[in-house]
Amino acid sequence: MSILLQALLNGVMNGALIAVPAIGFTAIFAVLRYPNFAIAAYATIGAFAAWWVNVHFGAGILPALLVAFAIAGCIGVGAEETALKQLRGAGALTVAIGSIALNTVLENVVRLFFGNDLRGYDLPLVPDWRFMGLRVGPQQLQSLAFAVVIMAAVFAFLRYTRFGKAMRAVADNSDLARLKGIEPAHVAVMTIFLGAGLAGVGGVLIGLDASIDPLLGFRVLLTVFAAAVLGGLGSIPGAVVGALAIGIAEECALLVAPASYRSAVGFAAILLVLTVRPRGFFGERAN
Amino acid sequence: MNTLLAVRDLTLGFYGAQILRGVDFNIRGGTITGLIGPNGAGKSTLFNAISGLYGPNGGKVTLGGDDVTGLKPHLLVRRGLVRTFQLARGFPKLSVFQHLMLYGLDQPGEMLAAALFSSSAARKREQELSEKALETARRLRLGHVIDNPVTALSGGQKKLVEIGRALMADPKIILLDEPMAGVNPSLADEIAEHLVALNGDGITICLIEHDMALIKRLCDPVVVLAEGKTLMEGTFDEVASDAEVQEAYLGTRR
Asked: Is A103 within 8 Å of A37 (Cβ atoms)?
């Protein structure tokens, strides 16, 4: 029983970390209508930006997260405007492939500056907490808390701010939004900033758990993508639910199969869900 | 009669394809002008270019004598030119009433500062628009579904919401992109009656439609577009009996 609870707990914590970049990915898809695989590089860039201010300036986690958000967001906007924007006219598939190329370029720029070594954040080591037979690291709990606060902030932003409403309007019907004076081109820039920034923050939260290296983003890319697809591409609550579902599925898989099959079992679950419900949990019907 | 909307030598192309190759026509105030042409003639693109969704590459659009070429869509709406979309999807999460309210003009309450500090003016305008939205919905016989989300409406009712949204902006001219396509015949008839009534109230209408019986019944004059150019303009009978128009629709006779 406690083994199952431990798996659920670990699953929720891993899932919450994946949810942050998954929200970024799905928000970009909702507004710009293409899957941006360069979010892997934005996650890595965020992780390294936070590491840099943490190690060199002694910044705590909160300021480091803000730096990661701002830098990953700015680089995301710069890369989008210089590289991907030119491809939009050629269709979503071309932009998606372009984003894979962009991802590799950015990843190697990180490698150029920081090398291939594993690096860790400069944080005090603390022993795990135990209660009722469950183990949990204070660091993990803190990351979970950050993830929850970030998600709440994103929801509040989309629900209550003018800009959040404009974003949803463009995602739902960009022509109709333009008749109301909303400029989809401006909304696109802000969405890329938000999406890439969230990927950067997600990169830090994932890196806090262990260490960071230039492949950090790429390693979780498939999981992030799967979370967004499972939840329904373009749906932000969907990305959260999808990420939690994958996190829990992967951890529960450990109970019945060797660790090397962990992702296989998780992704088998995704195939099953998408076979029954191709648009994911909260995806809109194609029209 | 007076020209309300004039289109002069309008050209538009993207990604190497020339869609509009010099469109010329006038819409006289008070008419229901039909815009017909074979598939791919550029009818919807012409609406997009006139209503500011796409900036034209060349040519000129004037509204009531003012040059409005390439003006942003919401500024054209303010000047009284409103268009509807063939795909009347709306915003899936909003109700009919919310759609109508959203497109009322001059809403000080949209700005946070105004909503907080001059709330009485904002509230008064909101009240006015809310009455107007209810009246518009009643007029279009959408009163019983006014609080339903647009996703719960039939195809024809969605088209009516599009028309209602256009009316909320106090338009001088409405560009209607196939408002009756895919609508069941009795509701299509009802929409046609609405258009006649709106026209009777002084609103000029330009209508893209494929159903020739409807064009014949509603429209005078009729403008024919083919391969990105205006082919001819005249009454329905003149247009229908024209050899060139028949050729454009049916292909060249040998």
From this structure: yes
